[in-house]
């Protein structure tokens, strides 16, 4: 057991990761910034992961290992690992990636007074060969503190590439359906801000067993029905606003602006409009929120266009209302 309290807690859920796990653990233990603890949970693996993890824990006192015989899922495990983390800074690790040795050091150096710093995810194939692309080639250029409002509509922060202050990671984040790294990025953005560190590199492996973030080079994703996509984006916006209105790290005046906008969206849904919930009133409510958040005028126009796009059209308000009510029960209990 390490003596003293580590600066960083790295959370690593494992499920049947034996094929790539040794390389990833070695890359974490080889970080030039050594003041960390590595909390690993074996989530019911049925391959050789358990033995790999036991050997690793026996060889390095920075590793804290726990295990279960049943598979509970990534978000449940992360919530549990967070409850045992002792560091003021939190990092997340996938079981099949590879971290460059100075990744952690560069994120720590760049963090400054910000709430979150994130690096660049270079894509590698199953054998570890560089594909020649990054995640940003697929999700768009990295966002930073200067385009805050964009974080409500898209994310470029990946959990495996970030370093965040623990205060912006509420355990309730892992109870929601939305990507936890996006929610952390949203809260951090409107707290003390987000910093991108281009040369803090994690090699993000692409293979057939990826559960998330699989970018198929040269193929197209199946196009979903536009209504379902719009509903999902609106649900994501709802969850972000619900978090922001309660997050203690967000300034009170910002929380009030988010609370008013969140309420305006709920009121629009309750109106029961059969084809569109977007009207002049909701547009003005959104514009008022942007002004209260001191968003620059040029960014306000872009954000209003994005907001209108997801609020306009056949959104089936009853379906959305039912989904929101289910979320409110979780939010009231966990935050």
Note poorly predicted spans.
215-227
Order of helices and strands: EHEHEHEEHEEHEHEHHHHH
How far apart lie the N and C ends? 32 Å
Average pLDDT value? 86
CATH class of the largest domain: Alpha Beta
Largest sheet: 9 strands, mixed
Count of individual helical segments: 11
Strand tally? 9
Computed Rg: 21 Å
Count of folded domains: 2
CATH superfamily of the largest domain: Spore Coat Polysaccharide Biosynthesis Protein SpsA, Chain A
Brief write-up:
This protein is an alpha/beta fold and 335 residues long. It has helices spanning 21-29, 49-59, 74-84, 103-111, 136-139, 180-189, 226-244, 252-270, 280-292, 297-311, 317-334, and strands spanning 8-14, 36-43, 63-68, 89-92, 98-99, 116-124, 130-134, 162-165, 194-205. Helix 8 (252-270) packs antiparallel against helix 9 (280-292) and helix 9 (280-292) packs antiparallel against helix 10 (297-311).
């Amino acid at each position: 057991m390490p003596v003293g309290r580590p600066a960083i807690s790295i959370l690593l859920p494992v499920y049947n990761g034996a094929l790539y796990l040794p390389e990833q653990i070695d890359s974490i233990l080889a970080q030039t910034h050594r003041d960390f603890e590595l909390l690993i949970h074996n989530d019911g693996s049925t391959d050789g992961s358990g033995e790999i993890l036991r050997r690793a824990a026996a060889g390095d006192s920075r590793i804290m290992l726990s295990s279960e015989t049943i598979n509970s899922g990534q978000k449940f495990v992360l919530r549990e690992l967070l409850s045992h983390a002792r560091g003021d800074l939190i990092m997340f690790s996938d079981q099949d990636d590879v971290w460059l040795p100075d990744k952690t050091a560069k994120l720590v150096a760049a963090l400054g007074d910000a709430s979150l710093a994130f690096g660049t995810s270079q894509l590698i194939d199953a054998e570890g060969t560089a594909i020649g692309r990054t995640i940003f080639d697929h999700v768009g250029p990295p966002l930073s503190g200067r385009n805050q409002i964009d974080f409500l509509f898209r994310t470029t922060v990946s959990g495996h590439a970030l370093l965040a202050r623990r205060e912006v990671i509420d355990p309730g984040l892992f109870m929601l359906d939305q990507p936890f790294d996006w929610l952390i990025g949203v809260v951090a953005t409107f707290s003390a801000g987000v910093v991108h560190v281009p040369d803090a590199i994690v090699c993000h492996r692409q293979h057939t067993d990826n559960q998330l973030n699989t970018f198929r080079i040269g193929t197209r994703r199946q196009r979903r029905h536009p209504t379902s996509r719009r509903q999902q984006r609106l649900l994501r916006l709802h969850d972000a606003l619900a978090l922001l209105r309660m997050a203690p790290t967000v300034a009170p005046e910002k929380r009030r602006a988010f609370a008013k906008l969140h309420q305006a969206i709920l009121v629009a849904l309750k109106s029961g409009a059969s084809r569109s919930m977007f009207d002049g009133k909701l547009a003005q409510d959104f514009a008022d929120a942007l002004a209260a958040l001191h968003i620059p005028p040029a960014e306000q126009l872009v954000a209003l266009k994005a907001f209108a796009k997801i609020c306009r059209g056949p959104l089936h308000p009853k379906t959305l209302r039912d989904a929101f009510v289910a979320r409110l029960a979780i939010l009231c209990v966990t935050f």
